[in-house]
Amino acid sequence: PNVQASKEAHIVQMFELLAATGKLIKITELDMGLVDAEGKTVLTRDITSEQHKAMSDHYKFIVQKYFEIIPANQRYGITHWSPVDSPTSSSWRGGEPIGLWNESYRRKHTYGGYADGLKDSGK
b vs e for 85-123, b when ≥16 Cβ sit within 10 Å of the residue's Cβ? Predict the structure, then answer.
């Protein structure tokens, strides 16, 4: 929880610094991995429901903060990197739960968090 709070504080600070530039701000290639309390990467096959929910909450946080902190005239959009989890054979985060859908194209908790962040922004 302390590490997560620190990461979230840094996200807020980053958005504040970016907003202060007056330039257009776009989040590109947004995705997230998951590490456990010891800092080890959690693979899709090992993820728990609680961890899925935590990822969902974090996506919601990021999207909400973007719309909360970045002025409307500076928003250039958000691009999510991968719609589905990374296959184990992938060279990019192989076997990690990075998507909003699983490899069978079933929505995950992360889809809900991302969508809730957009919904709550009023956009």
Answer: bbeeeeeebebbbbbbeeeeeeebbbbbbbbbbbeeeee
What does the alpha-carbon distance between residue 4 and residue 48 come to, in Å, rounded to a whole number?
17
Q: State pLDDT tens for residues 3-41.
A: 889 999 999 999 999 999 999 999 999 989 899 888 899
Unique residue bearing structure tokens 């962040």 = 117
Among residues 22, 31, 9, which one has the least CA distance to residue 71?
A: 22
* CA dist., res. 69 & res. 25, Å (int): 11
Per DSSP, what are the bridge partners of residue 8?
none
CA 44, 49, 55, 59 dihedral sign is: positive
